[in-house]
Specification:
heterodimer; A: CBS-domain; six-stranded mixed beta sheet; four-stranded antiparallel beta sheet; about 25% strand; B: about 210 residues; MetI-like fold; 8 helices; elongated
C-alpha cells in the first residue's frame, strides 16, 4: 500500500532530517513512526503526502510513484490529522469535516450527511455538534473532530501526526480505544506519528523506531519490547518492559468470559456455595437485564441474608477493548483484585482478575524469548 | 448649504476609501506572499513616506503632474488620488500583517487536505485575516475623512469649504460648523464601520 524506498531529506541549510529510510506498510495496517523529537518521523510522514518533498528516493502509494500524482489530488485521497491546532476556527464542525468532500465537489446535502455519519462514528451527537464552532468544544472533542475531518473524504490512507497529543491522559486513553475500534471496522492504512512509547505499543501493528533520521528497527510492538535490535532500542523501550507489555494485551483476550455472578434478590447462602466451589472470594452482582451493579466479597458474607444487603455497589468498569495497563490502573483504584468488563449498555461481559494479568504477562514474555 | 458640503465631503471620501481598499487589500495580499518579505518592506516604506509628506504639498505635486498629463489639475480627481495615497498605509500594513500571522498549523492543515493556493487564500487566510483588515480600513476611513477637508483648497468642495471661508473672513461660526461636522462625520462613519466589522467577522472568531 505504502512503500518508501531509500528516502532521503536534506534541507537547504544542510540538515539531514531523514537518511535512507525504506519501509513498507501493508493495506489496513497501522504503522507507528516513533522516536525522540527531531528524529525525522514527522518529516518522513509529510513526504508521503508531499507536504515536504523528498530529496531523493521514491515513495509508492498503491504501486504509484507519489510524485507522478497531482499534489492536491494526492492529498485529497490521504486523510490528514494533526493536533487540535489544525481545525479551521471560522468554520463549523460540519464544514470542517466537510473540507475534503467540498474540495472534491460533493453537493452540500451529501457533505452534511457525511459529517453527521462521522460525528456518529466518533460518538459525538451529530445534531448537537454539527453547527458548533471549534472554540465551543473541549480539547477531546476537538481532537475527535480532527479525526473525523481526516476521514471526511473516506480516504484509504490516514496520516496522523500526534493526533491525541494535546489532551489529558484519561481523554487520551478513551480516544485511543475508540480509534482502534473504528480502525477495526474501517481498515485504513494508517501512518501514526508519536513520541510516546506507550501509545506506540498500544496502537501500532508495527512500529518504526527512528533516531537521527535513520530507521533503527521496524517490527511489531512485541518484538520491539522483547527483542530490541540494539542498545538504543532497548534504552528507548526502557527497563520496565514488563509494564509496557501490558499495553499489548486487551482485556477480552484474558478475561473470564462467564464469571460466577449473583442477583440482588438472592440468598447469600447460595452465593457463598458458588464462591467456595470456584475457589474465589468475590461474585459479580448483576440485575435481571445482566447489567453490572456491584460486588459481593467474602469478608462481608456475614453481614446479611440477601445479596443486596451485603453487596458493595461499584461503577468502576472497563470495556473488552481496554488494554491491560488501563484495566490494571482501574483495578488499583477500585481496591479489589477483580474488575468488571462491560459492554456499552453496562451489561457484564466478563471479569478480569489480577491473576489473569500476571499469567498473561508471563506468557507474553516467554513466547517471544523462546 | 451644509448638507451640500457634507454630501461632497462624503462622496470624495467614499470614492477614495473604495478604490483605496481594493488597491490596498490586493497589494497587501500580494506582498504578504511567501518570498516577498523584501518587496513588502519597500512597499510599506513608501506608504509611510507618503504619510509624512504634508498633504498640501502632495496636492501641489499632483496638480503639476496631472496638468502635464492633460488631466484636470483641480477638483475631484487630484483630491481623490491624494486621499487614496494617504489611506494606503493602514490598509496595506494590516492586510499584510494579518495574512502573515494566520496560524501556520491551520494553513498546513488546509494544504495537507489538498487545498491549492487560491483555495487557501479565499477559504482560510482571508476569512481569518478579515477582522484585522477591517480594522485597517476603519483607520484609513477616519484618516481620509479628516484630510478631505483640505481638498476644498483645490476646488473639490466638501466641509473644507466653510472652514477655509471662515479662516479668510474671520468667521468663527463657519470654522466651527465645518470642523465639528468633519469630526461628527468621522465618528459616525467609524461607528458604522465598526458595526460592519462585527457583521462580517466569521462567527467562529467572535469571542
Amino acid at each position: 500500500m505504502i512503500r518508501l524506498e531509500r528516502v532521503i531529506k536534506i534541507y537547504t541549510d544542510g540538515t539531514e532530517a531523514v537518511r535512507e529510510v525504506s519501509l513498507e506498510v501493508g493495506k489496513g495496517e497501522l504503522c507507528v513512526l516513533l522516536g525522540p523529537s527531531g528524529c525525522g518521523k514527522t518529516t518522513t510522514m509529510k513526504m508521503i503526502n508531499r507536504l515536504i518533498s523528498a530529496t531523493s528516493g521514491k515513495i509508492y502509494i498503491d504501486g504509484m510513484d507519489n510524485t507522478s500524482i497531482d499534489e492536491n489530488e494526492l492529498r485529497r485521497n490521504i486523510g490528514y490529522a494533526i493536533q487540535d491546532l489544525g481545525l479551521f476556527p471560522h468554520m463549523t464542525v460540519g464544514d470542517n469535516i466537510g473540507t475534503v468532500p467540498a474540495l472534491k465537489g460533493w453537493p452540500k446535502a451529501k457533505r452534511r450527511k457525511r459529517a453527521k455519519e462521522l460525528l456518529e462514528l466518533l460518538r459525538m451527537d451529530p445534531d448537537g455538534f454539527i453547527d458548533k464552532y471549534p472554540r465551543e468544544l473541549s480539547g477531546g472533542q476537538r481532537q475527535r473532530v480532527g479525526v473525523a475531518r481526516a476521514l471526511g473524504g473516506d480516504p484509504p490512507i490516514l496520516l496522523m501526526d500526534e493526533p491525541f497529543g494535546a489532551i489529558d491522559p484519561i481523554t487520551r486513553v478513551g480516544l485511543q480505544n475508540e480509534f482502534l475500534k473504528i480502525q477495526q471496522e474501517l481498515h485504513k492504512t494508517v501512518i501514526f506519528v508519536t513520541h510516546d512509547i506507550y501509545e506506540a505499543i498500544k496502537m501500532g501493528d508495527r512500529i518504526a523506531l527512528m533516531k537521527g533520521g535513520r530507521l533503527v528497527q521496524y517490527a511489531p510492538p512485541a518484538d520491539l519490547l522483547y527483542r530490541p535490535k540494539d542498545e538504543f532500542v532497548a534504552g528507548f523501550v526502557g527497563a520496565d518492559r514488563g509494564l509496557k507489555g501490558l499495553q499489548l494485551i486487551r482485556t477480552k483476550e484474558v478475561m473470564w468470559r462467564s464469571p460466577p455472578t449473583a442477583k440482588p434478590e438472592e440468598e447469600v447462602k447460595a452465593g457463598r456455595e458458588r464462591m467456595e466451589r470456584q475457589g474465589i472470594d468475590w461474585l459479580a452482582v448483576i440485575d435481571d437485564e445482566g447489567r453490572f451493579t456491584g460486588w459481593v466479597v467474602s469478608s462481608n458474607l456475614e453481614r446479611g441474608q440477601k445479596v443486596k444487603e451485603i453487596m458493595s455497589t461499584s461503577a468502576i468498569v472497563a470495556t473488552r477493548n481496554a488494554v491491560l495497563s488501563e484495566a490494571l490502573s482501574l483495578m488499583l483504584t477500585s481496591g479489589l483484585n477483580v474488575l468488571a468488563i462491560v459492554d456499552r449498555h453496562n451489561r457484564l461481559e466478563g471479569v478480569l482478575t489480577f491473576q489473569a494479568i500476571q499469567e498473561a504477562l508471563r506468557e507474553a514474555a516467554e513466547e517471544v524469548t523462546v | 448649504m451644509l448638507a451640500g458640503w457634507i454630501v461632497d465631503h462624503l462622496w470624495i471620501s467614499l470614492v477614495a476609501i473604495g478604490i483605496g481598499a481594493i488597491l490596498g487589500v490586493t497589494t497587501g495580499i500580494f506582498i504578504a506572499g511567501k518570498g516577498r518579505e523584501r518587496t513588502a518592506e519597500v512597499v510599506l516604506y513608501f506608504a509611510e513616506i507618503m504619510m509624512t509628506v504634508p498633504s498640501l504639498a502632495l496636492f501641489g505635486l499632483l496638480m503639476l503632474l496631472l496638468s502635464r498629463m492633460g488631466l484636470s489639475a483641480i477638483g475631484f480627481l487630484p483630491a481623490v488620488i491624494t486621499l487614496i495615497a494617504y489611506g494606503q498605509l493602514p490598509i496595506l500594513r494590516n492586510t499584510c500583517t494579518a495574512i502573515r500571522h494566520v496560524d501556520p498549523a491551520i494553513i498546513e492543515a488546509g494544504r495537507g487536505m489538498g487545498m491549492n493556493e487560491r483555495q487557501l487564500l479565499f477559504k482560510i487566510k482571508l476569512p481569518l485575516a478579515l477582522p484585522v483588515i477591517m480594522a485597517g480600513l476603519r483607520n484609513a476611513m477616519v484618516l481620509i475623512i479628516g484630510i478631505a477637508a483640505i481638498a476644498a483648497l483645490i476646488g473639490a468642495g466638501g466641509l473644507g469649504v466653510p472652514i477655509f471661508r471662515g479662516l479668510r473672513n474671520a468667521r468663527m461660526d463657519l470654522i466651527i460648523i465645518g470642523g465639528v461636522s468633519v469630526s461628527v462625520l468621522a465618528l459616525l462613519v467609524d461607528g458604522l464601520m465598526a458595526l460592519l466589522e462585527r457583521w462580517i467577522t466569521p462567527k467562529g472568531l467572535k469571542g
